[in-house]
Design brief:
The protein is about 50% helix and about 10% strand. By secondary structure, it is an alpha/beta fold. The protein folds into four domains: about 170 residues, P-loop containing nucleotide triphosphate hydrolases (Rossmann fold, 3-Layer(aba) Sandwich); about 60 residues, Orthogonal Bundle (Helicase, Ruva Protein, domain 3), CATH 1.10.8; about 110 residues, Zinc Finger, Delta Prime, domain 3; about 120 residues, DnaA, N-terminal domain (GMP Synthetase, Chain A, domain 3, 2-Layer Sandwich). The protein has a five-stranded parallel beta sheet with strand order 2-3-4-1-5, with helices on one face. Strands 6-7-8 form a three-stranded mixed beta sheet. A two-stranded antiparallel ribbon has the order 9-10. The N and C termini lie far apart (about 80 Å).
């Protein structure tokens, strides 16, 4: 078989040919120039970014007949053998299949012998993290004090799985993901050498799909060339079809249906995507990226620098996103990120995608709009009473309606309660269980950036739930959005029981002493806990119902209900 895939045919043979790892290449060259050659190196980083390639070039630079040199000639016998992978003194070992203690013991015995031809005997162990714990232990002493003619080069994608005792004895070089722009530029060079006609859009799609791996990008280009055939032009539509990537036209239809809250259209589009053979998880990822592009088109003065799409496609994004508030777009991005994580591990992708997109398409109410509605309620409440005064509050004969000791009701406190309710609503969207515990808390005060919550002695479980680090972090993050400053949650337990607002009609009402049970007579049911009004005709209640689209279910609260 004479054909070589692009990744092998154009594999770098010199340090200056390594793409995207200039820092590592320069460090290795400096070590050679200065003569400060270590006895053990660790090359760590994602797949397909040049770890093994750099190890081979380093081995050639050290063993070249004209070396050590930073530019091996690639023509001498040793360079050719290392390039072809059959050099006697440069051994490439697969850590996955040579991971046991027996293999490592054999390696430890062999390092004692001097190299047959080369200047150094070099062991390149790929995926070294696969070596067993016993194997590492057997290697440890040799790695710490190897013979002067031996150099170890370890390559791994999982450096955290390597024992610290091994890591501490190696010079570590971190290989980074390669940017899509660099990958695209290199693919364009390869296409020109291969005389392949490929559009910039197609190269961009391949580069983005590679996710930082040059080898993956070259393999994808090979696959596309095989599909299209020699002499045929490769365009973006062809690449999307081969890779199963959602078309821009379908993504725009999805976002349009979500903005319009058209549930039927969303379900129809999911069916259409499935009939086209699209992977639903890939569709979710593409939707996530599409909404990112929408945000960039909304907020950026030069979106073409941030969005890798044709100018016409960017114009379509601008037109669709123009009337949408930025906060709503961020909300959609957040929900799509959650949906993408759910899709990754589900065995019912269609159901999860359908329910997730329907949930995303629900009406979105921003915090500013919620504040406006609350202010409208307050204004309605003040405007429907004579002289703008609030009606007197009827105190229940069964409870003490005085505020908790040390708690002063002020306009600032009233505003604080409203803001806390906003935080509660945001938490309810993400973690309903946590919101249920938060409902048992009373906001005591906000001093500086510390928000103090008060719990009754009966609500220890709810207090402990909020104090958990992961829960407190969620609350503080959402509170920061509402209060527009960093917030630290603090909690305390009150010796005075805090009555639920559902029983009193007020927030923060306390009970300081036992109360008598209501009298039950023979003529009728148990007397209500609090006096009730004719709420159906109350103008304030009617205003609240109109704003929030609610209805009255029950206007009597009795003990035991």
């Amino acid at each position: 078989m004479n054909y070589l895939v692009l990744a092998r045919k154009y594999r770098p043979q010199l340090f200056n040919e390594i793409i995207g790892q200039e820092i590592v290449a320069q460090a290795l060259q400096n070590a050679i120039t200065s003569g400060k050659i270590g006895h053990a190196y660790l090359f760590s980083g994602p797949r397909g970014v040049g770890k093994t390639t750099a190890a081979r070039i380093f081995a050639k630079a050290l063993n070249c007949q004209k070396g050590p040199t930073v530019e091996p000639d690639n023509t001498c016998q040793l360079c050719k053998e290392i390039t072809e992978g059959n050099a006697l003194d440069v051994l490439e070992i697969d850590g996955a299949s040579n991971r046991g203690i027996d293999e490592i013991r054999a390696l430890r015995e062999n390092v004692k012998f001097a190299p047959a031809v080369a200047r150094y005997k070099i062991y390149i162990i790929d995926e070294v993290h696969q070596v067993t714990e016993a194997g590492f232990n057997a290697l440890l002493k040799t790695l710490e004090e190897p013979p002067s003619h031996v150099i170890f080069i370890f390559a791994t994608t999982e450096p955290q799985m390597i024992p610290e005792t091994i890591l501490s004895r190696c010079q570590r070089f971190n290989f980074k993901l390669i940017s899509a722009t660099v990958i695209e530029k290199h693919l364009k060079t390869l296409a020109a050498k291969e005389k392949i006609i490929v559009s910039d859009e197609a190269l961009d799609i391949i580069s983005q799909a590679a996710q930082g791996s040059m080898r993956d990008a070259q393999s994808t280009l090979d696959q596309v060339i095989s599909f299209v055939g020699t002499g045929q032009q490769i365009d973006g539509k062809t690449v999307r079809s081969i890779l199963g990537i959602t078309s821009q036209e379908l993504l725009l239809r999805f976002s349009g249906a979500i903005f319009a809250q058209e549930s039927k259209d969303i379900l129809a589009l999911i069916n259409e995507a499935q009939e086209q053979g699209l992977d639903l998880y890939q569709l979710t990822k593409d939707l996530h990226g599409h909404f990112r592009n929408l945000i960039m088109a909304k907020i950026s003065a030069q979106p073409q620098e941030l969005i890798k799409l044709p100018v016409e496609a960017i114009d379509d994004l601008k037109a669709q996103v123009a009337p949408r508030p930025e906060e709503a777009l961020l909300h959609y991005i957040d929900l799509l990120g959650t949906l993408e994580r759910e899709m990754k591990y589900t065995d019912q992708p269609k159901i999860v995608l359908e329910m997730g997109l329907l949930r995303i398409a629900r009406p979105y109410i921003s915090i500013e709009e919620l504040v406006t509605r609350l202010e409208a309620i307050e204004n309605s409440n003040g405007g429907n009473n004579a002289a703008g005064k609030q009606p007197p509050v009827k105190k229940s004969p069964l409870v003490n309606t005085e505020p908790a000791p040390g708690y002063k009701t002020t306009p600032e406190n009233a505003s604080l309660k409203q803001q806390w309710q906003m935080v509660l609503e945001e938490v309810r969207k993400k973690k309903p269980g946590l919101a249920a515990s938060m409902e048992q808390a009373k906001v005591k005060d906000l001093i500086g950036t510390t928000l103090t919550l008060e719990f009754s002695s009966q609500d220890k479980f709810q207090k402990q739930t909020i104090e958990r680090a992961e829960n407190a972090k969620v609350i503080e993050m959402l509170a920061r959005q509402v209060f527009q400053k960093p917030i630290k949650i603090s909690s305390l337990t009150s010796n005075i029981d805090i009555l639920p607002a559902e029983l009193t009609g007020e927030e923060g009402v306390t009970v300081e002493e036992e109360v008598e049970e209501p009298v039950v007579n023979d003529a009728g049911p148990q007397a209500p806990i609090a006096a009730t009004a004719q709420v159906e005709g109350d103008p304030v209640v009617r205003r609240v119902l109109d704003i929030f689209g609610g209805e009255i279910i029950n206007n009597n609260v009795r003990k035991g209900e």
